[in-house]
Amino acid sequence: MELFADRADAGAQLAERLRDAHDPVILALPRGGVAVAVPIARNLGAVLDVLVTRKIGYPPTPELGVGAIAEGGEPVFDLPLLHRLGMTTEDVADVVAQERQELARRVRAYRGDHPLPPVEGREVIVVDDGLATGGTARAALRAVATLKPAKVTLAVPVGARDTVRSMHEEADEVVVLLTPLDFRAVGQWYERFDQLSDTDVLRLLGRQT
User: Fold this and answer.
1) What is the model's pTM?
2) Are 12 and 200 in contact (CB under 8 A)?
3) Which UniProt keywords apply (predicted)?
4) In the sheet that 53-58 helps form, which strands lie side by side, from edge to edge?
């Protein structure tokens, strides 16, 4: 199975699969999703903006996500995982509060005072650079659903099979190029998978100050 050269290559390939989209709004999940979304928006002649999400980490091990939150939405928790950890949603209330603050900071950094583009009655394509557990994508899709779009498509280059399958419950359509059996991490399917900064996101969006 061939690797994507980088996120731009993955986005160009996804764009070919999204050509039937009708005047969509592209909402990319920062940071990596923005690099994938830029060639999609360019190829489709579509509006592009960010939809900011944050992982809700397990307090003793923050790298372990027990949920996620997207701007305009409510926290979405992995309740079975919380149960296995002997925790409730109230036990991570402080983490949720911290992530709300960071989410608000990033919204200001990426969009300033500008709101999300209007999506009511429009086709929306939510883009990320890959799906592992799918926590942030799930939070993003539920937040978008509250804005009453006509259709929501999730588009990612690569994802874990079980996660991709579960996303069909959250989106009207799911477009994924690779669902490898030996999926371990998103980055393993890219030849180049650099970490991106806020400055990189602003450059990709053409919003450098």
Assistant:
1) 0.94
2) no
3) Glycosyltransferase, Transferase
4) 53-58, 61-70, 76-77
Question: Roughly what angle, to the nearest 10 degrees, separates helices 93-111 and 198-205?
Answer: 40
Instruction: Please say whether the beta carbons of 7 and 129 come within 8 A.
Output: yes
What are the residue ranges spanned by the domains of the chain? 7-53+120-205, 54-109
- The residue count of the chain comes to 209
pLDDT tens-place string over residues 146-191:
999 999 999 999 999 999 999 999 999 999 999 999 999 999 999 9
**Paired tokens of 149:** 């779009």
Backbone angles phi, psi at 41, to 5 degrees: -60, -40
CB-based contacts of 202-207 (< 8 A; 24+ apart in sequence): 202/109, 202/110, 204/34, 204/35, 204/38, 205/34, 205/48, 205/49, 205/50, 205/110, 207/110
* Architecture of the 7-53+120-205 domain: 3-Layer(aba) Sandwich (3.40)
